[in-house]
Design the sequence.
C-alpha cells in the first residue's frame, strides 16, 4: 500500500509512516511535564506533531532534518490538524524514496532530458557539439542537472525544475533566433544550456531545498564558469582540435552576463547578441513562470488578486471574480 | 437613542447594534468545542467578539465584510475589551447608515463643495469654466468626488477627504499664483481640481476603503486623464466653440505629471509652470497632512516622538514631553 | 535620371537637386565678406555647403527645415567633402518625394501590413477582432502606423519602423504564447499591436524625426490609452454588444505597463501574464535591434568593438578582428 | 555719460571703459606674432577681445579676474562681435561700481529688506524676535545677506537673490501656515530666514559668483547652523532669559533638513511640521524660479521649448509657437 | 556577596535583587484574576517575571524603565526560565551600580583613555595638541566620551564602545598614514578623535541605549561640529595664537564627510586626503566589528552561517561545521 | 646619448628619435595639398606633428599604434609646441625600449617583488604558501604581474602599478590583522595577492594601456578566479595533500567579493572577515592613491582645488593658495 501524504491526512486517521522532521522543540506543558513538538513534512506539505511525556534522551536521539518513522493519530485542534504521536524513531535512509519528500516537476523528466540531448547533439558547430557531449557523458553532472530545481523558492522550485526551465528556454531560443540574423544559434543554445548549470552545486536538494556553503559564497555564475572551463579542457579529446579561444570567451561571457545588470549579480552586462538574447529569454521564462504560478497556487477563489509576492513586488490579477472592477459610486451617505 | 460606537464601549456594557464583521474564524476551545471569533468594526475602531458553541451553519451564514446585527456583553479580557456574543445575524443593508462605518472629514462637506463650485464657476477662461460646469453637472461624479477619500491609508483617508484635499489646495493655489507671474491661475485651479479625480474610480469606499480592480490595474492618473477627455468632449455644447487643443494638452500634462517623478508613478515630469506648481502644492498638502495627523493621532502623551511611519520613513517629533532633549551625561559608572 | 544621394557624391561632382537644409548660418570670411553656410541632408546623410558673397536677403528667404533646390560643385576640403554652392532657392514641397529624405525600413511595408491585418482579422475573440477592424478602417491611423518610426534614435528609427517592430513582436508572441498556458493569445496580440500605437502622435516624421509637443507633454503611453478608448467606443457598432469591461481594463493595463517599471516611465508594473509577456517581448526586440544595428552600422572593420552606445551604456563586441583577445604578456621591458 | 554695457555694443563702436577680464590667453598668429585674447565681461554678458602684437610683459601685467580699462573698436567677425583692442591696463578698484559687473535683482533691495525686518520684528515669540534682532544688528551679516545671490547658477543667481528668495518664501509661509494648525508660524518664519543664511559665506560674490573654499568644504547647511549658534548666544542680552533649548534644537533641525532628503545633502530629513513646510516652500520657490526663468531667458521665440536644462533634467514647454502640437499625419510617402 | 546576574539564574533559584523593569503589563489569567507581567533586565540579558494577584495600585507604583527591588523564585516554564515574583518595589537609584545594567567593553577603560591622551598630547601641531587638551580638560566631555557606546545596536554597542572604537582607529591611522605621504598625520588623529564625538549627546546611555531628542533631530555629525567650534574658541587661551582658519575648516570637513556619501547622511563627501582616510578607517573598523561580532555571538555552533543581519544585509560565514560545503549530488530519486 | 622625451622638447629643437604614432590623419591645406597630421607620444606626454606634402602611399605605410622613427623641428604654433616633420618611417620594434613609452612606477620593481615573495614564502599555512610558490614559479605570470598597471586610468596606471598596489596592501594588511582577532592573516595576505591578479589578462600594456577583448567580456574578477583554480590544481604536487576545499572556497569568495557590492561589479558581497578586510584595504588604497595623485598632478599652483575628477565625482582640496577660504563680505555695492 502506498504512503499517506500529508495533504491526504484527515481527522481521526491512524498513521505509521516516514516523515521529514523539522523544527523539533522540547517544551513543558502546564503541569511542567516535558513534551516534544515538531513539524512532520513531505513534498505535499507539513503538519504539527506532539509526543507527550517525552524525555530528553528521546529528544536527543534525532536531529531536525532527519527522517523519522512515526506512529500516531491525527486530530483536529483549534481548527488545524495535528498528530498526537505515540512512537518516533530515526528511519534508515536507504529505505526512503526521496521523491516523496521534495516537490517535482509535473513533466516527464526522461522526455525533457531527451529533448535536451537532441538540441545538443544536433548542433552544427563541432566544438560546441563536442562540449555538449562532454557534459552529457558526465553521469554525476547529468544526475544533478536532471534533479536540480531552478530555484529554492522563486521559480521552478521543484526537482527537475532546472531541466524544465532550460528545455523551455531552448525551445524558445530555437524559435526566436531566426528573427535576429547575425545571432549564432548554436551559441545561444549552449548558452541556455549552461547559464544556470552552476546551480547543481549552488543549491542543495537532497532532502529539502537550500543553498550549499559554496553556493552562498560563490554563486551559480562563478561555479558555472568553472564547470565550463573544466569541460572545455576535455573537448579536444573528442574533436582533435583546440577549442577556439574566442568561442570560449563568448560562452563564458554569456554565463557571466545572463542576469543582465550588475544590480542582479552579473559582473558583466551582455555585450554580444547571443548574451543579450539569452538574458531576454531567461527573464521571460522566469517572470512568466512566477506570475502563472502565483495564479495557479492561489486557492482562494473568491478574490480577483493573488497575495502580495515579495520577489515580484506586486500582486497578480487573476480577474473574473467580483464586482469591484469598477468602484461602485456609493449610493448615498445620508 | 443613537448607536453605541466601538470607542464608547465599556466593561460590562450590554450591546445590541450593527457592526461590520471582519476576520471571521471558526476555532475550537480547549475542550474541542467550536466557537466563532471575529472583529466588529465601525468608523471609530474595532473590538474582538467571540460566540461560544457556534456551529458551522451559523459560521457560513455570513461573510467577512457583511454587516451583522449583534447582541452580547462587553468584558475585559487580559487588559483588552472583547464582546461575548449571544446572537448574530446578517443585517439588512438598507437600514444601515453607512456614515457610521467609515471615518469622515470633520469639515462640512456642503461648505467644501460650495467652495469648490465657487472656484470653478468664477474662472476667467470660458473653456475651463465650461469644463468645470460639465463636471459639476454630472451627479455621479459629484457624489463620488464629495465622498471619496484622498487615500486608503496615507493621507485624508476618510469620506470627504478628496474634497477637503482639493479645496485646501485650491485655496493655496489662489494665494501662491500671484508670486509667480507667467503662471496661468485658471489652469492651476483646474489642474488642482482634476489631479486626483481618478481616485473616485481607483478607490472603493462603499463599506471600507480599498482599491478597485480597475484602480490597481490603471491607477488614478490614467483614469483621471480619461475622465478629462470624456468631459472635454461636452464642453463645446456649452461654449459653442472647440476646446483649444493646446489647453487640453496642458491640462492632461498636469494630471500625468503631478507625482513629480517617474519613481512616484508619473509617466512624465512637470514641464510647465502650472504643472510644477501643482506638484509642489500637492506635495506640501499631502506631507503636511500626514505629519500633522501623526502628531494628532498619537495618543501616547508621555513620549516626544510618534511611532515610526512607514510611508514617511521616519518618526515625527512632537516635543515638549521629556527631559531627554539633551542626553544627560551619566553621573558616574563607578 | 534618379536623384544623387548624399552618400553618392564624389569630389568634382556637379549637382542640381533638392536637399533638406538645416543649421543655416550667415558668416563672414577673412575679408569680412558674408557667406551662407548650411547642412544639406537627405536620408543617406549630410554634407556641408557654402555660398560665397551671399546677402542677408537670400539668407532670410528660407528657414532651416526647408527643402532647397541647390546647384553647386562638390570639392574635398581638408579631407571632407563640401559643396560650393552657386544657387539656392526654396523648392515646392509638392514635387518632393519625402521618402528621399527619411530612412525607411528595408522590408516591404505592404507585406508587413498584410501580416498585421492577418493577425488582427484572425483573432478568436470577437470583441478584440472588431477592435482591430476599427483601427484598420481608420485611414489616418493606418497611414500613420505604417509610416511612423518606432523611435527617433534608439531603435527602428526609420519610416515603417513601428510596423516592422510590431509585426516582429506579433510573430514572436505567436510562437511564445503556447509555452505559457493560462496566457490569453488574443490579448497578447492586441497588446503588441497597441503598445506603441501612441507613437504615431508622439513622434513627428514628416521631414525629420522628432517629438511633437503633445508627444513630449503626454508620451505615447497616455496617447495610446486614449486612442484605445476612442476606438473601443466604436466596437459595439460592429459586434452589437458592449465591449467587456474587464477586457478593456486588461488592455489598457498592458499599454500602461509595457515599459516594465516606473523608472522607465510606466505608471504601472505588469500585473497580468499578458502584460508581463508583452513587456518581455518588447524588451527583447528593442534590445536585439539596437545591439545588431550597432554591429551592422559600425563600418570600421578593423576593430573588434563598436563605439560606446549611450542608450545601451556599453560597447558591443563584434569579434574576430584582432589578436588582442588575450592580453599578450609583454616580452620584456628591459 | 553712462557706461556702455556689453549688450549695448554694436559693430563699429569705439569703446573706452572698464570690463572684467577673464580667460586671458597669449597666442601666436599665422605669422608667429603673439597676441592676447581675453573675454571682457560685465553684468549684461561677455565679448571676446584681441590685442595684436602684445608682449609677455603686458600679458603678465594683469590676471584673469582683474578689472581692465580698455580701449578698442567693436567689429563683426564671422557673425559674432569682437573688440580689437588698442590699449589695456589694470583699473583701480575703488573707482569701479561693482553693480555694473554682477547681475542683480530687478526688485528694490531696500523694500525687500524692509519686508524682511517687518516679518522678524513682528514675531510673537520674544526669543525668536530677539534672535532676529541680533542678526539685523550685525552690519556685516546684513551687508552679506542683502547682496548674496541664492545660487551660483541654479536659481536667483544675482545680487540680492538670496534676499528676494527669502522674502518671497516669507510671504508664502505667511499665507500657508493658517492651513496647517499645529504649525508654529514664528518658527516657520525664522526657519525661512535662516535656511540659506550660510550662503553668505558659502558663496563668493565680490566680482563673479563662485564658491569659497569654506563653502565647498562645509556647505551652507553646516555654516548656517554655526551662524545660528553664534547669534543665539547673544539673545539673552536682549531678553534677559536663556534661549529655550527645545526651540533652538527645532531651529537647527529646520536648517539641517531643509533639502528634504539625504540625497540632496541634508544630513537629516524633516521631522517636525515646521521643517516639512520649510522644505516644501523652498522646493516650490526654487523650482518655480528656475522654470519661469528658463521661459523668460529663452529669447528664441520661434520654438515651443526651451533648451535642455541640466539641473531640471528637462526642457520647459513655452507653447503657443508652432503647428507641431499634434503630429501631422504625413500626407503620403508615395 | 555579589549580585546574581540574569545569565546566572537557574531553575529553582531564590532571588532578591535589583533589576531594570521593562514592558510591564497588567493581564488577567483564565479565572479573570489580574497579574503583572514584566521583563527584568540587567546587562547580561532579560528574564520574564510574573506577579500573581496584583492590584492596579501596585501596577501604577512604578514605570517601565524604573529599577525594582524584586523577590521571587526562578522556574522553568515551557523550556524557558521565568521568575514567579512575591514582592516588587521601586529601588532607590543612588544605591544602584549602573554598570550592572548596561553591557560594557571588555577592555580596560583606563588604559584606553591613557592611549587616547597619549595620542593627543604627543601631536606635533601645537594648535591641534592644544585643541586635544581643551577637550581633555572638560570633565563632562571626558565622562561622556569614556562611557558612551559607539552605537545603539549596530557596532560597539556597549559602555566604553566609543572610546574603544576611537582608540582602535587611532592605532590604525598611526600605521596607515606613513603609506600615504602628503597626508597630515596630526589632522587624521584629531579627525579620528572627533568624528563620532557628537554621539555623546546624540545617544542616551544612562540606563539603556537610545537616542536623545537632540540626537534624533540633529545627528552626531552636526553636534560634533558644534562641539568642535566651542572648543576651538578656547584654544588661543593655551597657545596665545589664533587657531588657523584653514586648519579648522579642514577639521570640520572631516567630521562632516566621514560617512563618505550623502546617502549615509554626510552633507559633504571627503575632499581631502585626511577626510578620505578617516572615512576608510571608520568603514573598516565598523564593518569588521560587526562581522566579527556576528560570528562571536552566534552560539548555535551546529551551523556554518550566522542569522541574517539586517544592517549588513547578509549572513556571515562561520564555516567549518558541516558537510554541505559542496552540494552532494543526490544519489538517486528512483 | 639618451632619448629626448616629449616633456623635454623646446622651441627650435631638432629631433631624430622614435615615438609612438597615434591619431594619424590625412588632411588638405588651404591650397588643397595633402599633409599628414599625427600625435607623437612617449611616456612623458604627446606632441602634435605635421608632415607637409605627404602622399597617400606614405600615409598608408604605417598605422596608428606603430612606432615611428621621425626627424623634424620643434616650433611654437599659437602658443603650443608642434613638430614640423621632414621624415618618418616605421621603426623596428626590437630596437625599442618599451619603458620609454609607458609610464612606470617610481619605485624599484625588484624590491617590490622581493617584498611580495617575502610575504608569500613566509606564510604559515602550508597550502597557501605552496599556492604562492606555484604562482611565483610561473615566469609568464610573474612577468605580467610585475609589469601590469593596476588600472588603465583610474589608479596606479603605470607599469608596475599592480605590484605596487598589491605590496602596499600587503603591508597594510600585515598591520591591520592584529586588530581583528578571528581574522586569518594568511588568507588576507593571499587574498590581497590575488584580488586583482586577473588584470594581467584583463588589461593590455604592451604599448599603451587598454583592455583586452577577454578583459572586457569577462573582467578581472572572473579571470582571477580561473587563474586561482588552475594554480590550486598544482599545489598537491608540492604539498602531497589535497588543497582543503573550504580554504579554496574562501579564497575564491574573496576575489569575487572584493569590489564590495553588486553595483561595483562583484557578483557576491563580502561574507567572511577576510573578504571584508580585503575590500576595505582595497578601497582605502585605491581612493587614497587617486586623491593624492590628483593633488600631485595638478600643476596649476595658483588654485586651491584640483580640476573635477569624474571617477571620484568631486574636486580635491589642495589648500593653502588663496584668500578665498572665507568669502569676503563685499565692501559695498553702492
Sequence:
Amino acid at each position: 500500500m502506498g504512503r499517506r501524504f500529508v495533504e491526504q491526512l484527515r481527522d481521526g486517521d491512524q498513521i505509521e509512516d516516514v516523515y521529514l522532521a523539522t523544527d523539533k522543540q522540547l517544551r513543558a506543558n502546564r503541569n511542567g511535564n516535558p513534551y516534544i513538538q515538531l513539524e512532520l513534512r513531505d513534498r505535499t506539505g507539513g503538519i504539527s506533531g506532539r509526543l507527550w511525556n517525552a524525555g530528553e534522551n528521546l529528544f536527543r536521539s534525532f536531529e531536525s532534518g532527519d527522517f523519522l518513522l512515526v506512529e500516531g493519530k491525527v486530530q483536529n485542534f483549534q481548527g488545524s490538524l495535528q498528530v498526537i504521536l505515540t512512537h518516533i524513531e530515526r528511519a534508515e535512509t536507504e529505505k526512503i524514496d526521496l521523491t516523496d519528500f521534495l516537490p517535482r516537476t509535473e513533466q516527464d523528466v526522461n522526455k525533457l532530458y531527451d529533448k535536451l540531448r537532441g538540441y545538443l547533439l544536433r548542433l552544427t558547430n563541432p566544438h560546441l557539439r563536442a562540449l555538449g557531449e562532454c557534459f552529457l557523458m558526465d553521469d554525476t553532472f547529468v544526475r544533478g542537472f536532471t534533479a536540480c530545481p531552478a530555484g529554492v523558492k522563486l521559480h521552478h522550485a521543484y526537482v527537475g525544475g532546472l531541466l524544465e526551465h532550460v528545455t523551455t528556454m531552448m525551445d524558445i531560443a530555437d524559435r526566436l533566433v531566426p528573427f535576429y540574423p547575425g545571432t549564432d544559434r548554436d551559441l545561444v543554445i549552449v548558452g541556455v544550456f549552461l547559464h544556470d548549470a552552476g546551480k547543481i552545486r549552488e543549491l542543495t536538494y537532497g532532502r529539502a531545498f537550500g543553498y550549499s556553503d559554496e553556493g552562498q559564497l560563490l554563486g551559480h555564475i562563478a561555479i558555472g564558469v568553472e564547470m565550463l572551463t573544466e569541460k572545455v579542457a576535455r573537448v579536444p579529446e573528442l574533436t582533435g582540435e583546440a577549442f577556439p579561444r574566442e568561442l570560449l570567451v563568448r560562452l563564458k561571457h554569456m554565463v557571466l552576463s545572463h542576469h543582465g545588470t550588475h544590480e542582479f549579480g552579473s559582473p558583466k552586462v551582455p555585450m554580444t547578441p547571443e548574451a543579450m538574447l539569452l538574458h531576454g529569454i531567461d527573464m521571460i521564462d522566469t517572470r512568466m513562470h512566477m506570475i502563472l504560478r502565483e495564479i495557479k497556487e492561489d486557492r482562494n477563489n473568491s478574490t480577483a488578486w493573488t497575495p502580495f509576492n515579495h520577489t515580484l513586488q506586486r500582486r497578480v490579477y487573476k480577474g473574473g471574480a467580483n464586482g469591484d472592477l469598477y468602484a461602485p459610486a456609493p449610493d448615498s451617505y445620508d
User: Anything to note?
Assistant: The first helix of chain C runs from residue 56 to 60. Chains C and E do not touch (no CB pair under 8 Å). Chain C has two domains: 6-99, 109-291. Chain C has eleven helices and seven strands.
